[in-house]
Design goal:
CATH class: Mainly Alpha
CATH superfamily: Flavinator of succinate dehydrogenase
Number of strands: 0
Distance between the termini: 17 Å
CATH architecture: Orthogonal Bundle
Radius of gyration: 14 Å
CATH topology: DNA polymerase, domain 1
Oligomer: single chain
Strand content: under 5%
């Protein structure tokens, strides 16, 4: 298991690496945004979206946080559908408990 509730066993090595990197960003807020977004979306992203996602992940965490929260204007190169999806994604910031993980797993079935 790489994230909170998703197993990476069924993912390609590239998708596993991306999922791992999403949960190990450097600042916790970005771990939660990218990690939970990746858990929900990683298996559905096309190869070109994965390329773009990796490029986005290469940006500085503090800049990403400011762009996602609207603290800084978004640069032209990030004005894409994928970045909009990431920015619109609202992670669950509630406490992680056995019950919350079970409920999330049941929702995804």
């Amino acid at each position: 298991m790489t994230g909170l509730s998703r197993s990476s066993a069924d993912l390609s090595p590239r998708r596993r690496r991306i999922l791992y990197r999403c949960w190990h960003r450097g600042i916790r807020e970005m771990d939660l945004v990218f990690g939970q977004f990746a858990e929900d979306e990683i298996s559905r992203l096309s190869d070109s979206e994965l390329d773009e996602f990796e490029a986005i992940m290469g940006e500085d965490d503090h800049d990403l946080h400011a762009w996602i929260t609207g603290g800084k204007p978004l640069p032209d190169h990030l004005q894409t559908e994928l970045f909009a999806r990431i920015s619109a994604y609202r992670p669950d910031f509630g406490p992680v408990t056995t019950a919350s993980l079970k409920a999330k797993a049941e929702q995804s079935e």
